[in-house]
Amino acid sequence: MVFNGRKKRNIPVFLILLLGFALTSPLYAQNTGASQKFEQKLQWQIEKNAYEYKVEVRSVSGGTSTFHTTGTSSITLNLSSGDYQYRVYAYDFLGRESSVSEWRKFTVLKAVAPKINAPETVETATDTGKKLSVPVEIKNIEKESKVELINTETKQVVQGTLQTRTSNGEVVAASAEFPAVDNGDWKVKVTNPSGLSSESTTIKIEDKQALEAQRKLAEAEEKKRLAEEERFRREEEKKRLAEEKRLAEEKRLADEAEQKRLAEEKRLAEEAERKRLAEEKRLAEEAERKRLAEEKRLAEEAEIKRLEEEKRQREEARRLTEEAAKRRQEEFARKAEKLREREMDAKAKREEARKKAEETRAANAEKAKAMEEKQKENLVELQKEWDRQEAERKEQEAKEEEERKIREKKEAEERKAREKKLAEEKKIRERKEAKEAKKEYWRTRNYIEINAQLGAGAVMNVYDGQLFKYSDSQYIPSLKAEISYLPFDIGRIKIGFGASGIISYLQNSNEYVSYNFKYGMFNGLGLVHLPLIGDRFYAGFKLGAGLTLMEVNLTYDETFSRTQNAAPYYGYIDVQGGACLYWLVTRVVTLEAGADFTHIFIKDMPTGNVSPYLNIGVRF
């Protein structure tokens, strides 16, 4: 919008509305030390015929005016703290100035965040009354500032009042009063009228009398709990011994059944492997016979097509030669026919001349004789031309025949070269196939895919946590051994089975007892290896079940009212699954890194743990 600089004072007075100054909230300047940004809003009454407004703002202390154009009755500014004045120009839809307000003053206050210094602990007593006084030192506040007490756990908010005073012209606070609150961790929050606020560090509010009563009650409850735990432990010990006896019998029966199952699985696997190897050999021989027959058929078809193409090219060349000779003969016949016609015309003329001018025959005899000699010469020249063309044709035919013989000889040499090249390529392909077959043999048949591995790792408890009850560490070092058999190979995916064992040992002691814990997990597994990179890197997955054996030896101090534990044994059924990265370092040496998860079925205390490991092994 382009403003017209001329002032129009002839507009009716009732159309000029005095512009009013209204602030929706106190004006505050941006606090340069904080991330929050404040804006100021100037607002005035709308003039009926005003289309656009221009606002002039300047500092009271002097300086350059700034102008702001808007189509509404307000503008938003971002001024620093200080005293300012402004006036508003109104323009109609033709760009003419219709009215201007008087200069009006306003003040922008500086917005700052309070600074709080509070104690770490505030002690109270039940009989001190219903008021809580918190000694604090708060700066950068105003009389209208609010103070709150906020619980760090429940987020409960309690409103309070500030006890303020003036120091060097600045409002400060020495304490804050609140209604009585519960014990716990609280924070003091102070908010200035500008909206900026600050929180103190955590203040612990404690009631000494209530805490002492709670401590005594907790001690009594702890004594009662320990007595109940001792009774429960004795009952559990009796149940555990009976359960161990039952599990030992179940283990014996399970071991016998597992041995029978493994023997039957081994027999079936060996039989299936023999059948698979025989079928693979038959299929490979049949595929090789088909490949050689197809190559022979394709070579014969290519040779037949080549010979037919050569025959067609020779016939085409002969046909073109015959057509050229035929065209030359026809051309010679046309020339001879024209010569005979000219001769007959000349003869007719001579006869007519003879009849008409018998009397001049003698005079013209010499002339006729000369003409006849010339005609004879023409006939001789024509015969020579025909003989020359015939000689050229025979020479061309001889040349073409010579070229044909050279071409046939060259084609025969090229055919022999191609046959020799095909024979050499066949020998190279056969050597390459023999090499690949040898490599494939060493890859798939030289080894029976039995792997024996040994390594180290750790046992980490995932849930229940009883295994680490007496330990200062959350990791139990372990030894791991594994043997696997992968007889099945389906599209480079290897499938088989195996067995693994993890043994851990933990020892700890305190002033009452020495704790020795031996821990072993023994599992039968189903295995799958998926190829990742070539024939050396695989991703392995396993799933199975087995038995977890534990030996616990508790030796109590002689001053403690317990006898030495007789190192009881425990046995529990478990299920295990895992994943690993399998690297075939050489044809014999293997490296495997992975992690196993085991769930142990312990009555009333099911336990789960993760066992990362690194193994090195030998491939047979």
Give an overview in words.
The chain is of the alpha+beta class. It is about 40% helix and about 35% strand. The chain has helices at about 210-355, 360-445; strands at about 30, 40-45, 50-60, 65-70, 75, 80-90, 95-100, 105-110, 115, 120-125, 130-140, 145-150, 155-165, 170-180, 185-190, 195-200, 205, 450-465, 475-490, 495-510, 515-535, 535-555, 570-585, 590-600, 605-620. The strands form four sheets. Strands 9, 10, 11, 12, 13, 14, 15, 16 and 17 form a nine-stranded mixed beta sheet that branches. Strands 18-19-20-21-22-23-24-25 form an eight-stranded antiparallel β-barrel. A hairpin with a 2-residue loop joins strand 13 (about 155-165) and strand 14 (about 170-180). Helix 1 (about 210-355) runs antiparallel to helix 2 (about 360-445). It is flat, with a radius of gyration of 58 Å. Residues about 1-25 have low confidence and may be disordered.
